[in-house]
Write a structure and sequence with these properties.
The chain is built from 19 helices and nine strands. The strands form two sheets. A five-stranded parallel sheet has the order 6-7-8-3-9, with helices on both faces. Strands 2-1-4-5 form a four-stranded antiparallel sheet, covered by helices on one side. By secondary structure, the chain is an alpha/beta fold.
Length: about 525
């Protein structure tokens, strides 16, 4: 864990050092107001030294302003460290995914990979943040403890007696909490994998009448996840309730009672008692924060371990980029979904310049075949070769640079039209974007919008119609200008006239390139030079 911690923070070490110093300073300034409060009670209220009133009030205000200024600077430094660290770790994990072979990735569920990319990277950065906060908090607790002892050792001793009990109970709850959060994480991974898997295979599920069994499985996972969530958060609630009851009620009420007895017997003064309670309030809050830190450490450390595991996976050796696309070959491909065999001993060859329509009944494996070509799925048997290079060792950067895939599940983002288009090619200029949109028959629509290319289209293009979304996706693909274009029902939301005009224009302008399309429309089939029926 320490190795991960230092590797994570070394590029931010100067800012982290400054942030730590500011945190120490902020907490130190927080210890001054109770001191001024005691001075006010002793010297002004009791000793009647009214001439000190302005000095004490000025010091109090100065300490408050200084702490405010330090807090602002501390927050600014924080915002320059941890958000960028979080983004950097997500990017590193995502890049690691891209460098691994499919066989390694298939050792993890889709939900598991998603959790490691998002939740675990965020928790790993939070681990670094909490570790810094823990040690600054511990120093503050030690200083406050010395102040409490200096004010009245009897009151301090009594307040400290409950600390071992508090930490023993907290540790017991923490162990149970780690166990329950581990179960919750496992079930969430199964649930995420279930949802992603069913979105990819909805056609196969429908074709093989598996809908009812999928609904039952969904109900089971949802119930298990709800129970695990309740148990995990009950542990957190139990810890907070115990600490609040002990520190806020039992201890404070006991201190007031004991302090009153000591004051009656001239072993303490009322100003010292009141100041002691002020310091003890901060002391108890720091202990609550430290306890929360300890409670969360098990879950955070597990996330760190999971990120380390992914980053430590060996990268496979990739072959050299195979140059210009010439040939795609599928040899004896077999693929099954649960107990339903989708493809069996399937073979085909695609050569440069061909236009191929893949047709067949729903659930026969058309979309599955495209996902196998893209490397989203791996076959149970057989081999996929691009330019004679096996998919297992193929340089994925070459594949996704040369081939433009337009899947049914392809997404648009809650960004402007321009930003969505630039995902196709980040260095495209205005003229190139307009040309791609014109070829996809959507330029006139975009120019008719009040904000044109700067129009925000919502998550997955929700502000557009189905046909407009598909035309925009086609424009993004054309902007990329790949050597081979693969459509999976990419024009299904277009009317026959629009589909026909787009396909005719597309096939005219991609002479010498390769085009593969999954479709069920006869008008589309007639545009292609070869038809493959599954």
């Amino acid at each position: 864990m320490n190795k991960f911690f230092w590797n994570s923070v070394k590029e931010y070490r100067v800012k982290i050092l400054l942030y730590t110093v500011l945190q120490f300073l902020r907490q130190g300034l927080g210890l001054l107001p109770p001191c001024f409060y005691l001075l006010f009670l002793d010297e002004i209220m009791t000793a009647r030294k009214l001439e000190l009133l302005g000095v004490v009030m000025g010091l109090y205000v100065a300490a408050f302003l200084a702490r405010t200024v330090v807090s602002v600077f501390s927050k600014r430094i924080y915002n320059s460290i941890f958000p960028s660290m979080r983004e950097a770790w997500k990017r590193r994990v995502f890049q690691k995914y891209g460098s691994l072979d499919i066989g390694t990735l298939q050792g993890y569920t889709a939900g598991e990979l998603k959790a490691r990319l998002h939740k675990d990277t965020e928790n790993a950065v939070l681990f670094c943040e909490r570790k810094l906060d823990f040690w600054t908090g511990v120093l503050n607790i030690c200083i406050t403890a010395m102040i409490l002892l200096r004010l009245n050792w009897i009151l301090a001793a009594v307040s400290f007696l409950l600390l071992p009990l508090s930490f023993l109970v907290t540790r017991r709850i923490k162990d149970r909490s780690s166990l329950e959060y581990g179960k919750l994480r496992q079930i969430q991974g199964e649930y995420n994998d279930f949802m992603i898997h069913n979105m990819y295979f909805w056609k196969e599920i429908k074709a093989n009448n598996l809908g009812e069994s999928r609904r039952r499985e969904f109900g089971r996972l949802w119930e298990d996840m709800g129970n695990a969530f309740l148990k995990a958060h009950m542990c957190w609630f139990m810890n907070r309730t115990f600490l609040a009851f002990k520190d806020v009620f039992l201890t404070k009420m006991g201190l007031y009672l004991l302090g009153g007895i000591l004051a009656i017997h001239n072993m303490a003064t009322v100003p010292v008692l009141l100041s002691f309670i002020e310091y003890y309030g901060d002391f108890a809050n720091r202990l609550l924060e430290a306890a929360d830190n300890v409670m969360m450490r098990g879950d955070l450390e597990e996330s760190v371990r999971r990120v380390q595991e992914i980053m430590g996976l060996p990268q496979p050796e990739r072959g050299e980029a195979p140059g210009r696309f010439e040939r795609l070959e599928l040899r004896g491909i077999t693929f099954s979904y649960e107990d339903a065999e989708i493809l069996r001993d399937f073979s085909m060859v695609v050569r440069r310049g061909e236009s191929i329509a893949i047709v067949g009944e729903s659930g026969c494996g058309k979309s599955t075949l495209i996902k196998l070509m893209a490397g989203i799925l791996t076959p149970a048997g057989g081999e996929i070769l691009w330019n004679g290079c096996s998919m297992d060792v193929l340089e994925r950067g070459w594949l996704y640079g040369k081939v433009g895939f337009l899947m049914q599940e392809t997404s648009l983002f809650n960004l402007t039209i321009r930003e969505n288009l630039l995902f196709g090619r980040s260095d495209a200029d205005e003229d190139e974007m307009e040309e791609a949109c014109s070829r996809a028959n959507i330029l006139q629509f975009i120019e008719g919008l009040p904000q044109g290319f700067e129009t925000v289209i919502g998550e997955n293009g929700i502000r557009l119609s189905g046909g407009q979304r598909q035309r925009l996706l086609i424009a993004r693909l054309l902007l990329k200008d790949p050597e081979i274009i693969i459509f999976d029902e990419a024009t299904s939301a277009l009317d026959y006239q629009n589909e026909s005009s787009i396909l005719e224009l597309l096939l005219e302008q991609i002479e010498g390139k390769t085009f593969i399309m999954v479709t069920h429309r006869e008008t589309s089939i007639s545009k292609c030079s070869r038809v493959l029926r599954l």
